[in-house]
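Input.
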Amino acid sequence: MAENKVKAKKATEVKEEQGVNFWADKAPCYKLCNCPEMITNECPVAKYQFLPCWEIEGTYCKLDDKGSTGRDTSICETCRVYKKYGNGEPIVLKLFGKGIDTHLRELDKIAK
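Output.
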């Protein structure tokens, strides 16, 4: 059972693997989707620009009001940002534990 768990990588480990800023020559998703500043400030995409949004757990777009963990990438498959920059490659999450959902769970623990 433990072997089925996704191993979380530290942001620096993923960054070293990627080596570049994915959004360097592109309009970032939060600009293309006109996200309000409040969301942009919380969403991990602005902080971890070495990965595209569809490879980061807990981005604003992946969340819902039913307790989503932010790991469901099905919304990404229909997103104009993924269609523009994803090159049709399969979506694989590469960064875990840095998303909005994780942040909210930590705040919830503090509040209790």
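The longest helix spans residues 100-111.
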